[in-house]
Amino acid sequence: MIEGWVFKKQQFVKPLSHSLKQLVFLKAIICGFKAVFLNSMAYKFVDNYRERGARKKLVEHLKSRGIADQRVLNAIGKVPRHFFFDETFWTQAYKDIAFPIGDGQTISQPYTVAYQSELLHIKKGDKVLEIGTGSGYQTCILMELGADVYTIERQESIYNHTLKVLPGMGYNATFFFGDGSKGIAQHAPYHKIIVTAGAPFVPEILLKQLKIGGILVIPVGNEHSQTMVTVIRVSDTEYEKFELDTFRFVPLVGDQAW
Ligand code: SAM
Question: What confidence score (pLDDT) does residue 68 get?
Fold first, then answer.
């Protein structure tokens, strides 16, 4: 039986011209690649009516909670938050909650992401330093607002994961691995700096990395609760500080942190 099958196969292949054989071979490689690569990615990058509908509802919910900047709402309406979740948890993706992403860290609550984004007043082309890349969801929102994002994460496994996921979604930020509590001096100054983890104080070194007119947004407090603080650099030596609402973030860990 087996010999017969081989014979038939040879008979079929033999009459093919050399270039046709090459074409068949190439097609087989492409099909194999599609099967392996797309199969592993497909579920991640499906954005169907159910998810789009849930995203619209989330935008309405954020509006009702007081997020007024239409550009921020548009960005939330555009970035598929379920791409940052395992498929098993897609039903959680458009709830206004933080969610575990592993290693004791979380993807920030949509309201918090929108709130911090609004405070930054991003203009197209702004150079933004994000401290605490995490899942990369906030990074995508900043990029949708037109920012050129430099983002740093201190947990290696999270850094490695997000480094792959974001470019796959078409968001090409500049990624760094390390302690962001000291900022990234070699790329300073920045128009805006956002810290997405709770700090014990405002690190002076971050203030020095702001452009004149630049804005820092950072949650400051203890391990249970932090006040959202914005600092505007008014001149070389002057800063204006504003204290806003209360949130609960995972801790900023590092040299100028916990
Ligand atoms: N905005 C992110 C998102 O949407 O997924 C959530 C970030 S999560 C709340 C805070 C992140 O800050 C964590 O991934 C944590 O590892 C990181 N982090 C904490 N301290 C840091 C530091 N000193 N430098 C860089 N990243 C830090």
Answer: 98
Cα 231 from Cα 215, distance rounded (Å): 6
Ligand 1 pocket, 158 CB below 6 A?
yes
Active-site positions read 108
Comparing C-alpha atoms, which of 56, 94, 52 is closest to residue 73?
56
Residue nearest to atom 27 of ligand 1 (CA): 132
Question: Is residue 43 domain-resident?
Answer: no
Q: Domain with 226 in it: what CATH number?
A: 3.40.50.150
Our answer on whether the CB atom of 146 is closer than 6 Å to any ligand 1 atom is no
Compute, in angstroms, the gap from residue 193 CA to the centroid of ligand 1. 13
* Positive or negative: CA dihedral 196, 199, 202, 207: negative
Is the distance from the beta carbon of residue 137 to the nearest atom of ligand 1 less than 6 Å?
A: yes
Whether pTM > 0.90 for this model: the answer is no
Q: Average model confidence (pLDDT) for the chain?
A: 88
Per-residue pLDDT tens over the stretch 78-122: 999 999 998 899 999 999 999 998 888 889 999 999 999 999 999
CA of 132 to the centre of ligand 1 (A): 3
- Report phi then psi at 221, rounded to 5: 170, -150
